[in-house]
Amino acid sequence: MTFQADLLFGRTALITGGGTGICRGIALALAAHGCDVAIMSRSAEHLAPTADEIRATGRRAVAVPADVRDPAAVEAAVTRTVEELGGLDILVNGAAGNFLCLAEQLSPNGFGAVVDIDLKGTFHCSKAVLPHLKKNGGVVLNISATLHYLGTPAQLHVAAAKAGVDALTRVLAVEWGPYGIRVNGIAPGPIADTEGVRRLLDDAAKQRAEKTTPLQRLGLIKDVSDAALFLCSKAASYITGVTLVVDGGLWLTSSRHAFAAPPEAP
Ligand code: NAP
Ligand code: COA
Fold this sequence. Notes:
Elements: E1 12-16, H1 21-32, E2 36-41, H2 44-56, E3 61-65, H3 71-85, E4 90-93, H4 108-136, E5 138-143, H5 156-176, E6 181-188, H6 195-200, H7 203-212, H8 221-232, E7 243-246
Parallel strand pairs: 1-2, 1-4, 2-3, 4-5, 5-6, 6-7
Bound molecules: NADP nicotinamide-adenine-dinucleotide phosphate and coenzyme A (COA).
Coenzyme A binds next to α4 and α6.
């Protein structure tokens, strides 16, 4: 018996933040399963190499530089994606910003920048793809986090933004279900070799996180891209409105705060 990697053959996806890190992994995994992929972020330099890697899998790729905070730019990026790929079936909202900062020291712009990218960006992109996903049904996948499940210090801005993202996942699942659109999320724990972990964990914190995680290791980008493949595929046909935690069980442990080593308060 032969097996084909064709879970998403003939489908098209737009992935924000798809040039780097976790969402680059998702872009390559979807392409490996037959999906044509557009990737969008601010920097053309982040996008071009990943677009080339997607093309090397034999699928079509489009690199669209745009800022998710700008609804007009998002609209134009979606239009270009549909023109070049001939339609749109899947949106992955992965664009995000993060840095460690105690609430006491966080400026209005610092809080606003992260909420604007993670939460409002997810709203802008989801709204922009709706007319296209309505045509044949589709999938929206929001990349969230687990930071807001407990009171993770120095992550107020991200926790607030991702809590909002989880709310969008649930509300849009209800509103758009009748259009045949499934809306789900993935909440990764710390994922090795990513910008997120580089910003949040030093070596000691990584070791603490490995010990604290029930599965005794940091996550891999593949752990998240496998979950994304599942939620984007027909294997998840009856699943909507959920955020799947992919963290080796870390958020269930009470000592998880150890992984974010906050700066000292003044
Ligand atoms: P990353 O590589 O830095 O990914 C973030 C992406 O967002 C970049 O490609 C960046 O590209 C893009 N981006 C940032 N601001 C943007 C904007 N205004 N408009 C458009 N694109 C923008 O980081 P990552 O660690 O892989 O994180 C990916 C996702 O996983 C994020 O949603 C993050 O919150 C989530 N997550 C990560 C971890 C982890 O351990 N890494 C844990 C939990 C959740 P440009 O600079 O080119 O714009
Ligand atoms: N600590 C405290 N505040 C910070 C900060 C930090 N480490 N980094 C940025 N800020 C504040 C800035 O000071 C500014 O506020 P101010 O005007 O009051 O000074 C505000 O955040 C916006 O900063 P700016 O650099 O203008 O934002 P930007 O739109 O260019 O970039 C960020 C957005 C800040 C989220 C930037 O880190 C980014 O582009 N991140 C993308 C990659 C990433 O974070 N990957 C990990 C994903 S998990």
